[in-house]
Specification:
The protein is of the alpha/beta class and 348 residues long. The chain is built from 10 helices and 17 strands. 23% of the residues lie in helices and 26% in strands. The strands form 4 sheets. Strands 3, 4, 5, 8, 9, 16 and 17 form a 7-stranded mixed sheet that branches. Strands 12-11-10-13-14-15 form a 6-stranded parallel sheet. A two-stranded antiparallel sheet has the order 1-2. The longest helix is centred in the last third of the chain and has 14 residues. The protein is globular.
Length: 348
Amino acid sequence: MDTIGYAAQSAATPLAPFHFERRDLRPNDVAIEILYCGVCHSDLHTVRGDWGPQAYPLIPGHEIVGRVIEVGPEVKKYKAGDNVAVGCMVDSCQKCDQCEHGEEQYCREGMTPTYGSPDRVSGEITQGGYSKHIIVREEFVLSVPDGLDLSRAAPILCAGITTYSPLRTWNISKGSRVGVIGLGGLGHMAVKLAAAMGAHVTVLSRTADKKKDAESLGAHELLISTDEEAMEKAANSFELIIDTVPVEHDVNPYTPLLDIDGTLVMVGQVGPIMGPTTVPMIMGRRRIAGSLIGGIRETQELLDFCAEKNVHPDCEMIRMDEINEAFVRMEKSDVRYRFVIDMASLEA
């Protein structure tokens, strides 16, 4: 299939229009016209080579909402006209213990990311959602429930599942005490989702100017992390803290805030962290953990949950040709809280 996207030709060049071929439909494939694609911080890091060398040209984008235009002869779940979504991965081995219990993101052979990774069959490099079309095997296509606004659903596929998965893993429910560090694309979804689960949600911020925003998203309190007295009073306050900060930072001020058996889960920063002191962990059986997106089953559960609870990301719609400006603004945290590309703006 001949199509068009916006690709980086190198780590130093801006994204620009790029014509390319999507693979022919395999028997278990779904062909999708992309309607909307979210813009994730990891898109920026990947195309710039921050996380290692990349195979260029590279089309990013892994928060994809679209409409089925064709299916292979073995596809059973989808038909032309269905509203569907694709997240951060498009394949896995489908046979290891992790895949079999619905956690394909931890596939023993390594899951296949939506862009920048060799296709498991052909070896060609996968290309993402900053494009008009995508072809994905049926098992990695998700159904978008009728209750979701298609134009605002895309960030659920990464920002949403990245924060929903730890909330489910650590059994957050009505009355649970949850802290959220950082109020960007990930953090604002963590607040919305935890609040929708009935948790008591506190946003941790260095300054008081986030209070109004935090409350508008569903948070019950704001804890100022630079206020030593307030931090001391908040000791043992949380069962779970979701740390969405995307850059290296000191976690030591936050671990004493955990209750006995509490967990601080890192979902934002990729790479080394400053050396944590083990004292709060030993003295309270507290832990620092990490979490990577979620499996296909859990992501579908999340989409259904968001439709049921009317949880939508806060989005700013952009045209495809505004993506490079959006990257610059994203680096400055100048977005509330997620850019979404309207693919109708991408000229064929």
